[in-house]
Amino acid sequence: MMDVLVIGAGVGGLAVARVLLAMGHRVRVYEQAPARRTGGKALLVWSNGNAILNDLGISLDDVGARIDRIDALTSGGRLRTSMDLAHAAGRYGFPTKAVPRHHLLQRLADGLPDDVVRYGVTCERVTQDGGGVMVTFADGSTVTGDVLVGADGHHSVVRRTLWGDGAVQPATFGTWQGLSPIDIAITDTTRHLMVSGREGACGLMPAGKGLLQWWFDVRWSPTDPRPASPLAELRRRFGHWASPVSEVLAAATDDDLEFFGHHWNKVRPVWGEGRITLVGDAAHTMPPTLGQGANQTLEDAWVLGRELAKDGDDPAARLRAYEKARYPHISLVSKLAKRNPANWRTPPMLARLVPDTIQTTMLARFSNRLTAAAAREP
What we know:
Blueprint: E1 3-7, H1 11-22, E2 26-31, E3 42-45, H2 47-55, E4 65-67, E5 69-74, E6 79-84, H3 85-92, E7 96-100, H4 101-109, E8 117-119, E9 123-129, E10 132-137, E11 142-145, E12 147-150, H5 157-163, E13 169-180, E14 191-197, E15 200-208, E16 211-219, H6 230-238, H7 245-251, E17 258-264, E18 276-278, H8 281-284, H9 293-308, H10 315-339, H11 348-351, H12 358-376
Parallel strand pairs: 1-2, 1-12, 2-8, 5-14, 12-18
Antiparallel strand pairs: 3-7, 4-7, 5-6, 9-10, 10-11, 13-16, 13-17, 14-15, 15-16
Helix pairs in contact: 1-4, 1-9, 2-9, 2-12, 6-7, 9-10
């Protein structure tokens, strides 16, 4: 049995805790937020993520909305291409679902012992020697353990300890998004729309119980000023698009909006050091164009658990085996997410030369490969 310290109580940290506790390890999770996060928008749990949740004993049956089809449309409403997710679900047994993030966090936390997660503590420094690891918190307190897992996301303190600054770079676009009770026809369907045009891109995704996850992708850099009225700007830019985009913008409010500028880092073949490793965005920050962020984080936790369950007295060797097992797969995912046309700095004239179906075709092929892999695993 090992004493495992985890920094971060998001999807990755809670998944690591569930996996390793089930294998008999001692796990302590430290989160800087004062309590479990109850906000955030919806995310897409693909077949691969759902397969891992099933292995962890977590069901999404009564939360979110099943997504059976993704349709890619032009801004004028013309169908470009369609992806049949129901077929994959029928073949492999794991549907794709859109789930509000706080519901997924609740399911991952359900059943954990009360003393596993400690909230309101901020990691400031991580050190290690041959015999263990030590975390120093902002209040001056410290904890020690055998292994440390950095699950502290895009702004990871643990990653900065290992890699230094500057590893994560801004992508070329950002997203205005909302999760709202918008009463239009698509909200009660199993159909996910991806709409694109010269002005940017829009996604519409039912999230269950009358909620619609919606977002607008626009060109962005960290130096760009925020518009004084974001919703008014979105209506100006996208309001002339075909139904149902115009209806969503008419029903939305400024209170619904959140903005995320996206980032990316090159995945390293070895991303940990000694008795320290990373999972999720801490290891592989990427734009959300493939919708695989949370799913790849769940895969990280699952593979980490398998490697730590193997025989061997050297924890560092087991952590490097985990990273080696994950590298080819997550490196491909990250490259596909970065190379997606939505991220290119392409002049408008050249952008019109990119085939309309390329984004959805890549996503379809990638999703099918992930689903097959999940189904093959014991």
